[in-house]
Amino acid sequence: MRLALLALAAVLAAGPAAAECRDDVTAAFAKQRAAKSFRMEANVISMQGPMKMTVDYVLPDRIRQRIVFATQPDAAIEAVLIGLKSWANEGKGWAVAPGEIKAELERQLRDVAQETDDQLGNFECAGKETIDGVELSVFRSVKGPPGAGGKPTGGTEAPNEMTRLIFVDPAKGLPARTIVGRANALDRPLFKAVYSYPSEIKIEAPAANCRGPGLPGARG
């Protein structure tokens, strides 16, 4: 799990900063933070191979994560962070999380809960795309600071540079999807996430005798 968390951090950190239509993107993520709770379901290419990740967020201080590797579909790896406490289940039952896992969960939560406009970066409008019957606005990361009229001055990425696509549901004003990959291979992304906003997500400390792949229940 530790390698998986570090691999995910590297993929997400690779998204470059850039500029046009940025206000729509920052407004969408600000509304996501204001929602307080949401779910991210992602497919990730990690150093250990393809994996699926489900992450629940209850802001400001709770996160629950579940990872399943394609090579071990029946062996989920889980972690929970609540405030200053964290737990992990790497297949042998729940225990206090090792320091590096706790630190990575704290970083992920901090990046979501406290992300500034500068950290999010700049984007250009990239049209519309209909996915599962819903028309989404697409925004693509670009390089360089804003120029005249808010347009990027640095241009888009070179073919093999990392690019981030953000899909926003204009009817709800919320992020719907994120893709991170090389500019010339976005049909084969390293990271692809779908966001959802269930009416209630709750996270609590796992029971001491919790076993198996299921996530613990919760009181948020």
Discrete helix count:
4
In helices, the fraction of residues equals 10-25%
Strand order of the largest sheet: 6-5-4-3-2-1-11-10-9-8-7
* Residue windows where pLDDT falls under 50 for at least 5 positions: 13-19, 146-154, 209-220
Please give the number of β-strands: 11
In terms of structural class, how would the helical and strand content be classed?
alpha+beta
- The CA-CA distance between the termini, in Å, is 25 Å
Radius of gyration: 18 Å
**What would the principal axes of the Cα set say about the shape?**
globular
How much of the sequence is in beta strands? 35-45%
Mean pLDDT rating: 82
Provide the succession of SSEs: HHEEEEEEHHEEEEE
Q: Sheet with the most strands?
A: 11 strands, antiparallel
Describe what you observe in this structure.
- The chain is globular.
- The protein is α+β, with helices and mostly antiparallel strands and 220 residues long.
- The chain has helices at residues 2-13, 22-35, 99-113, 117-120, and strands spanning 37-46, 49-58, 62-69, 76-82, 85-89, 95-96, 123-131, 134-141, 162-169, 174-182, 191-196.
- Strands 6-5-4-3-2-1-11-10-9-8-7 form an 11-stranded antiparallel sheet.
- The two termini are 25 Å apart.
- The chain is 20% helix and 37% strand.
- It has 4 helices and 11 strands, in the order ααββββββααβββββ.
